[in-house]
Amino acid sequence: xxxxxxxxxxxxxxxxxxxxxxxxxxxxxxxxxxxxxxxxxxxxxxxxxxxxxxxxxxxxxxxxxxxxxxxxxxxxxxxxxxxxxxxxxxxxxxxxxxxxxxxxxxxxxxxxxxxxxxxxxxxxxxxxxxxxxxxxxxxxxxxxxxxxxxxxxxxxxxxxxxxxxxxxxxxxxxxxxxxxxxxxxxxxxxxxxxxxxxxxxxxxxxxxxxxxxx
Length: 214
Fold this sequence. Notes:
This protein is of the alpha/beta class and 214 residues long. Helices cover 36% and strands 25% of the residues. Strands 1-2-4-3-5-6-7-8 form an 8-stranded mixed β-sheet, with helices on both faces.
């Protein structure tokens, strides 16, 4: 992968050809960044589509990916409302730099929620991938029920043990992901994986991306 800096953020890019069919954009933290090689290897071997994957760094996960302010669910840090600014970075800096006819935005956990939220804000992204997305986020399902997603294709997934979380807010994730799937008025899929939230992050993301750009 090529590592560059764009408008103050670290960006990692991998392209399979000079003229890809898809540009995939993905927000990552340090853990996700370490799994990018595994993710790309799986995606390359399971998809016939050509693509450029563009991963960009997130410094403060709870602040930069949250669509609106909300009380802390774990730890002591409240959620911010930085998703709008992060989406502006994607649209103003990354999309013009990596030009393509089709864009996919995807992510894992809160980055998956950010991808879903972005799909309601703009029609730039043909496909959205929410791998184990944080759809338990306060007032998220109310938002999804009252808005129309603009993407043509949405992938959702969840681990089959994620709803067994001790945290009562996060334990609602199973019913929330099923409701989210019901609400989507587009081509969609909900895939269940084995394990809890912290198992096979890179693989789960890669599976979603392969479906999204098939």
